[in-house]
Write a structure and sequence with these properties.
It catalyses: a medium-chain fatty acid + ATP + CoA = a medium-chain fatty acyl-CoA + AMP + diphosphate. This is medium-chain acyl-CoA ligase. Helix content is 41%, strand content 20%. It is α/β, with parallel strands linked by helices. The strands form 3 sheets. A 5-stranded parallel beta sheet has the order 6-5-7-8-9, with helices on both faces.
Length: 188
């Protein structure tokens, strides 16, 4: 009584229930603490170093112009530790602090995500289409201590700074420098 439906076998209700029961029979071992950066990324990096896992790209980014950024697991781990140091030391952030990242999807966006996971800093992502009013609302509601943005969005952030009493540091991702801003590329 199983018939093909658009080329796929159709499961009977009894099969679905038994599969569901099968999945839930096993004890799930959940770690007390889990950190993607150290428990997955660093582990895979170590397996590659020991030759127990073939070297593959952990991150591969290509933009519209064909520029590529390709990082191995070891490189991504190394760079994320450096970015974590920037967040902890230069920006003065600690575990549980909030940071807002208003960036286009550039490699640094993913690097900062992993760095925040590594340190326990809470990353609040924002699209690069946010207006100054949107940014102000997010900064006030989250009580973020740091904002990370591009050089093109920095003026929108600067326009709302007087109303952001919790903001302690501003980190810019770009080639240029800006007064009152830390530059991620220079700090890395």
């Amino acid at each position: 009584p199983c018939r093909l439906f658009h080329g796929y076998n159709r499961l009977l209700t009894s099969q679905i229930i038994s599969y569901y029961e099968l999945i839930h029979q096993y004890e799930k071992e959940l770690p007390e603490y889990f950190n993607f950066a150290s428990d997955v990324l660093d582990e895979w990096s170590q397996l590659e170093k020991e030759g127990r896992k073939p070297a593959n790209a952990a991150f591969w980014w290509v933009n519209e112009e064909g520029e590529e950024v390709k990082w191995s697991f070891e490189e991504l781990g190394f760079l994320s530790r450096k970015a974590a140091n920037v967040l902890s030391e230069a920006c003065g952030l600690q575990r549980g602090d909030r940071v807002i990242a208003v960036l286009p999807r550039v490699p640094e966006w993913w690097l900062l995500n992993v760095a925040c996971m590594r340190t326990g800093i809470v990353l609040i992502p924002g699209t690069s289409q946010l207006t100054a009013k949107d940014i102000l609302y997010r900064l006030q509601a989250s009580k973020a201590k740091c904002i990370i943005t591009s050089d093109t969005l920095a003026p929108a952030v600067e326009s709302v700074l007087p109303d952001c009493q919790f903001l302690q540091s501003k980190l810019i991702v770009g080639k240029g420098s800006r007064d009152g801003w830390l530059n991620l590329k220079e700090l890395l």
